[in-house]
């Protein structure tokens, strides 16, 4: 298979990192993950979202663009556990919707975003992981990450609606949607084999039923 660039998208708790880890190991792909621990803006953002939302989004945009370019230049196929597109179409939109990002800052950010992404090569496949918000909430509560304690069902539902809006018009590459609420590719080898085969077929240009 020629080099491929795959991005994984999905709501918080959808299973992006778990799938990226397993596909990377199984397929021999280079993996890239969302950087959170070394983000210098996150503590300020969680203390005062209205003041720091714009700074946080610009930081994420720069970090993800750099990572994306590095991955695009990797000789091996690569898989990223969150797409750069979600920054604008999901999370910045949500911050604007909740009045944590002003209209002026939101428009300035979107102009910068468009300039950056238009200079990036398109991915070969976007894998969209989807699960009911109640399931996402259970997973988030189970993993008990400190920074996720303020996440509510309403917020997850808002993000879910934005994902639906975004994917209706996304046309940069093929999209494979995978429902993760009844598909345990973490603990069941057969489920991972099924996912791997669907992805391989999709990358080869074959018709693949969503599941």
Question: What does this protein structure show overall?
Answer:
The structure is a single chain. The protein has 211 residues and is of the alpha/beta class. It has one domain (5-203): Rossmann fold (3-Layer(aba) Sandwich). Helix content is 54%, strand content 11%. A 5-stranded parallel sheet has the order 2-3-1-4-5, with helices on both faces.
Record keyword descriptors for this entry.
about 210 residues, 5 strands, about 55% helix, Rossmann fold, alpha/beta
Structural topology:
Elements: E1 5-10, H1 16-27, E2 30-32, H2 42-47, H3 49-72, E3 78-80, H4 85-97, H5 103-117, E4 125-130, H6 133-143, H7 153-169, E5 175-179, H8 189-203
Parallel strand pairs: 1-3, 1-4, 2-3, 4-5
Uncertain segments are none
Choose one word for the global shape. Answer: globular
- Strand percentage, roughly? 5-15%
How helical, in percent, are the residues?
40-55%
User: Mean pLDDT, nearest integer?
Assistant: 92
User: What would the CATH topology be?
Assistant: Rossmann fold
Question: What is the quaternary state of this protein?
Answer: single chain
Distance N to C terminus? 24 Å
| Structural class by secondary-structure content | alpha/beta
Order of helices and strands: EHEHHEHHEHHEH
């Amino acid at each position: 298979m020629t080099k491929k660039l795959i991005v994984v998208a999905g709501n918080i708790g959808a299973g992006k990192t778990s799938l990226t880890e397993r596909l990377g190991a199984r397929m021999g792909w280079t993996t890239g993950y969302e950087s959170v621990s070394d983000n210098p803006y996150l503590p300020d953002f969680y203390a005062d979202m209205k003041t720091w939302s714009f700074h946080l989004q610009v930081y994420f945009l720069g970090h993800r663009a750099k990572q994306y370019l590095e991955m695009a230049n990797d000789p091996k196929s690569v898989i990223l556990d969150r797409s750069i597109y979600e920054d604008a179409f999901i999370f910045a939109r949500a911050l604007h919707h909740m009045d944590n990002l002003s209209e002026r800052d939101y428009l300035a950010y979107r102009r910068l975003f468009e300039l950056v992404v238009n200079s990036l090569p398109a991915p070969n496949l976007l894998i969209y992981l989807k699960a009911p918000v109640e399931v996402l909430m259970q997973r988030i509560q189970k993993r008990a990450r400190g920074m996720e304690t303020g996440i509510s069902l309403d917020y997850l539902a808002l993000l879910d609606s934005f994902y639906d809006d975004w994917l209706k018009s996304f046309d940069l590459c093929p999209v494979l949607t995978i429902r993760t609420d009844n598909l345990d590719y973490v603990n069941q080898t057969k489920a991972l084999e099924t996912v791997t085969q669907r992805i391989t077929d999709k990358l080869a240009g074959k018709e693949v039923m969503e599941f």
